Amino acid sequence: MTPKSRMQREAATVETMIRKYCRLHHNSDDDLCSECRELLNYSNHRLARCPFQEGKTTCGKCRVHCYNPAMREKIREVMRDIGPRMVLSNPIMALRHAVDGLRKKPLQRRKNR
Ligand SMILES: [Zn+2]
Fold first, then answer.
1. Which of 21, 22, 63, 87 is the residue whose CA sits 20 to 30 A from 29?
2. Phi and psi dihedrals of 104, rounded to 5?
3. From the CA of 77, how far away is ligand 1's center (Å)?
């Protein structure tokens, strides 16, 4: 299995968490409710514009707070609520996210990998 890129991983993690949150709190099935869909679109949009790209830490630890206050509050609520559940339901994803978050500072692009 080829490891996904840092950015794909972050996007996948955020999407998984928002979907779980919506299922739990908004009684949605396969589709997100409009509020959660908006949040997911917003976070993908921010991620695509992240200045650090592959060198980024996780959004929760990033020093650049690029979310607007309303969206930031929503995503924080999702992370607070779903974060602990991820350890049980998606342990590998949770572990990789924790490792990604150990980067305190964004990395410079490496020459070869
Ligand atoms: Zn929802």
1. 87
2. -75, -40
3. 12
Indicate the number of domains in the chain. Answer: 1
Whole-prediction pTM: 0.81
Residue 64, domain extent: 6-100
CA of 30 to the centre of ligand 1 (A): 11
Which protein residues have their CB within 5 A of the ion that is ligand 1? 22, 26, 33, 36
pLDDT digits (tens, 9 = 90+) for 17-46: 999 999 999 988 778 999 999 999 999 999
Q: Is residue 108 part of a domain?
A: no
Domain assignment present for residue 35? The answer is: yes
55 belongs to a structural domain? yes
Q: How far is the CA of 52 from the centre of ligand 1 (A)?
A: 29
Structure tokens given for 23: 């299922």
For residue 112, what pLDDT band results from cuts at 50, 70 and 90?
Answer: low
What residues contact 56, with CB distance under 8 A and at least 6 apart?
A: 6, 7, 10, 50, 62, 103, 106
Candidates 91, 64, 76, 57; CA nearest to 18 is 76
